[in-house]
Structures are given as structure tokens and as C-alpha cells.
């Protein structure tokens, strides 16, 4: 069976990510198929709405197929650039889709999984949802429009989530603007059936989510993460007098120093950009630059290939990351630009 199952059922365009053994990680082929289907369905009067979900019991999608990215990057090949270009174009198409695009964000929703759900018009989380952008842990940055979403979260919650790779509950995701409705997982089959019957008001199945635990921690998150440098953020966290703040400092300092600094600058830049297209353009520049740096290959090796969880970052300390090297990650790509901001 295909890695992504596409069909139209009673007027509902269905997208099911179908790689449960890899937690539905996105491949280039899957991205192309979804992009094409959305193009077809946008102008098809027989399709009222689109629904995306994931096969298996574990979640919607764990992100992009980073093992494939590792193989290409290690060999010095440009395959990842093509994948990111097509993935980001898909993220933008989802955001512009003219009909309801309903994402069932049940279970694990990480990285690229946020990209195919978080830009939809109707985003449903459950009590099982675990949402996050963990890229700094593999020598990368939040992408797939993650800078757009996280930079617009209340206060500095998005900065915290990006720099620590925090795992967000469904309630956290709603509070941060990454999701819209909380529906109990046991009611999802009933919801899908109603959608197939033409009932598109998800609110009939939603309930008030539990309080967001992350929202309650803004008392220390906002003052700590409002600093202008990652070094100062880490220092404020470590001396915050909050056990959770001290734990966040330790978590942060285990990530790629280069990724942390580039991510902070990307988030600050994204916050003042006008739209998702501009943020995706920025992310593409950064992604292409980081492909040439050693931390991406090393981060994936430590997390996925050897699984020793002991990445050897280069440079290994925040203070050794050259400011100019960070700035170069945002350099204009000329003819290689993604170009969504001008479309």
C-alpha cells in the first residue's frame, strides 16, 4: 500500500499518512502526492473539505524522514534542499487551501507533522496529543513554518518551546495557537463519520481542554526568554529560582549551540514578518545553510543512527559560535530562493 493513502469519501478528501512503523515520517514522495491532491481538490466541487490523519495508534506524524536527510547530507548531496523546497511549498498550499482543511493531531505530532497540520483551518488535538518542534536537538531549526507559529505564541512560550524542544500537550498547543479544538480521542471515529456526512462544525464534538500547564509557567518563562542572547537566556533560567527554569537551562544547553543561536534570531525575525510565506522563505535560507554545517549530520547520527544521545557539536559552546557565522545562515540565495513572499 502507498505511503500516503488519498481518496475522496462522500465529499471528504481524505489524506492518511501511512508509514506507521516510522510514525508516519514524511518522504519526498508523500509530500509530492499530497501537494498534487490538494491542487486537484481545491477546484473540485465534489470535495467539500479535506481531512488529514495518520495510520496506526501512535500519532499523526513524527516529522520528516531525517534518516534520508542524513544519508544525503553525509554524502554532500543536495537532496534535502529539494525535499525542503517541496515540503515548504506544501505547507504554504495548506495555509492557502480554499476549503476546510481539518487536521487530526492525535498522538505524536512533531516537526514536519506540525507543518501538515498546524497551517490548516481546523486543527484538532486530543488528550493523547504531544506536539513539538525538536529540531535544535539534531543541529537544525524549527522549520515548516514553525518560526511563524511559535513567534506568534503568547509571550515567550514559543521561544521556550523552540530552544528546549519542549513537548506540548493538546491544551498547550491550543493556548499557543498551534491548534483550535480539543476532542477526546475516543470520539474521533464519530467525528470522522460526521465529517463524511457533511457536518463540518467540529465544535459539536469539542470540549473545554484541561488547563495548559505551560501557560501557568509564563511567570518565569517570559522574563527569562525575553533576553537578547541565548547565553543570557540560559543564565536567567539557571538563576530563576524555579526548578522548571533550571531544568529548562539544562535541557537548552544540551542542544546544538549553533542551532540555538540561529533559532533565536529566526524567531525574532519571523515575529515581524508579514506572513507565512515570508517565514518559509527565511527558513529555507537557514535550512540550506545548515546543510553545509557539521551539526545536522552529527545530531541525526546521535539521535537516530547510533542512538548514543551524545552529539559532539561543533562548536561545542555557545560562546564559541561566531556572530558572523550565524548571520551567514540568513544570506539571500539569489536564484535559489524559495520565493513565496513575492508570489
Tally of alpha and pi helices? 15
Taking the alpha carbons of the first and last residues, their distance comes to 36 Å
Main beta-sheet strand count, sense and barrel state:
6 strands, mixed
The CATH architecture name of the largest domain reads Alpha-Beta Complex
Give the SSE order as H and E letters. EEHEEHHEEHEEHHEHEHHHHHHHH
3D architecture notes:
It is a single chain. With 343 residues, the chain is α/β, with parallel strands linked by helices. It has 2 domains: 4-132 and 177-204, 2-enoyl-CoA Hydratase, Chain A, domain 1; 215-342, 2-enoyl-CoA Hydratase, Chain A, domain 1 (Alpha-Beta Complex). Helix content is 44%, strand content 12%. The protein is built from 15 helices and 10 strands. The protein has helices spanning 28-42, 66-74, 79-96, 112-115, 146-151, 157-164, 170-175, 188-196, 218-225, 230-238, 243-253, 257-271, 276-291, 294-305, 323-328; strands at residues 4-9, 12-17, 49-54, 59-61, 101-105, 108-110, 122-125, 130-132, 168-169, 181-182. It has a 6-stranded mixed β-sheet with strand order 1-2-3-5-7-10, sandwiched between helices. A hairpin with a 2-residue loop joins strand 1 (4-9) and strand 2. Helix 1 runs parallel beside helix 3 (79-96), helix 2 (66-74) packs across helix 14 (294-305) and helix 3 (79-96) runs antiparallel to helix 13 (276-291). The chain is globular and about 60 Å long. The model has no long low-confidence stretch (mean pLDDT 96).
